[in-house]
């Protein structure tokens, strides 16, 4: 993949993203967040309050462009979709455990995470026959999930 030389690693949230985030709200017992800067900044810019916050590496966006990588990682190595689905399955198990302990949990994550979390065809994706049938969430869109 070729990226413009000015593309940065771990891209920050844009001004529009900060504006969108400032409109989301709610109180949660636990906030779970991707380690990528733009997800952490979304949580910080929102009106979401929480009792406890945890960074989950499993909630990180699928590594497909330089902005999804941390500096020092090889951004030429795109994360294969089947491998990503297995990571999201692990994330689902983590979410289930947290939901057993906490009544209200929020996950601040990314487009691909949301799509795969809401997909019902994981085996088809792993076998290369689908890219997922899940919901494509808009920026800062919140939905409720039954896990």
Name of the CATH first level: Alpha Beta
By secondary-structure content and strand pairing, the structural class works out as alpha/beta
Report strand order across the widest sheet. 2-1-3
Q: Averaged pLDDT, please?
A: 92
Tell me roughly what share of residues is in helical segments. Answer: 25-40%
SSE series: HEHEHEHH
Outline of this structure?
This protein is of the alpha/beta class and 147 residues long. 33% of the residues lie in helices and 15% in strands.
Short descriptors:
single chain, 147 residues, alpha/beta, Rossmann fold, 5 helices
Write structural notes for this entry.
The chain has 147 residues and is α/β, with parallel strands linked by helices. It has a single domain, classed as Rossmann fold (3-Layer(aba) Sandwich). Helices cover 33% and strands 15% of the residues. It contains five helices and three strands; from the N terminus they run αβαβαβαα. The protein has helices at residues 15-21, 37-45, 81-101, 111-117, 122-126, and strands at residues 25-33, 47-55, 105-108. It has a three-stranded parallel β-sheet. Strand 1 (25-33), helix 2 and strand 2 form a beta-alpha-beta unit. Helix 1 packs across helix 2. The chain is globular. The termini are far apart.
């Amino acid at each position: 993949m070729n990226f413009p030389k000015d593309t940065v690693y771990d891209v920050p949230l844009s001004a529009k993203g900060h504006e969108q985030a400032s409109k989301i709200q709610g109180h949660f017992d636990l906030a779970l967040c991707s380690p990528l800067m733009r997800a952490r900044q979304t949580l910080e810019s929102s009106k979401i309050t929480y009792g406890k916050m945890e960074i989950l590496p499993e909630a990180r966006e699928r590594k497909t462009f330089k902005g999804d990588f941390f500096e020092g990682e090889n951004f030429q190595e795109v994360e294969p979709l089947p491998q990503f689905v297995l990571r999201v399955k692990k994330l689902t198990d983590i979410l289930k455990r947290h939901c057993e302990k906490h009544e209200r949990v929020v996950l601040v994550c990314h487009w691909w995470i949301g799509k795969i979390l809401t997909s019902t065809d994981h085996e088809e994706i792993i076998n290369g026959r689908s890219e997922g049938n899940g919901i494509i969430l808009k920026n800062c869109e919140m939905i409720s999930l039954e896990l």
